[in-house]
Give the backbone structure.
Amino acid sequence: MRYERRGRGEGRGERRGFVRGFPPKPVEIGKEYDVEIEETSRRGEGITRIKGLVTFVPNTKPGDHVRIKITRISRRFAEAEVVGKAEAVAEEAEEGAEEEAEEGEAE
C-alpha cells in the first residue's frame, strides 16, 4: 500500500507554517547608552532593557545608573560593558552638591 503526502506546497520548495523573523535591533555595536540596571541574571550580571531588548552588563547590580557600550548583539539579547556613570545621574549629583554648598554659604 502506498500513501501520498497531503499538504499545501510540500515538496515544491514552499515553507509551511508561520515563519517568525526577528525585528531589527534597537541598539548598535559600539554605541553608548545611559541605563538603569533593573535586575540580576543567574550568572550575576546586571540586566537592563533598551527598547525591549534585554542587555547583560557585568559588574553591576540593580539600581545602578551607568553608561554602557554595546559589545555584542545576539538574536535575543545584547551584551555591554560599563564605560562610566550615567550623565543624567552625574549631573543631578553635581546640582545637588551645588545646592547644598549654596545653602551652607547662606547660613
About this structure: Residues 13 and 71 are 38 Å apart (CA to CA). The beta strands are 32-36, 39-40, 46-50, 53-57, 65-73, 77-85. Helices lie at 87-106. The domain at 32-98 is CATH 2.40.50.140 (OB fold (Dihydrolipoamide Acetyltransferase, E2P)).
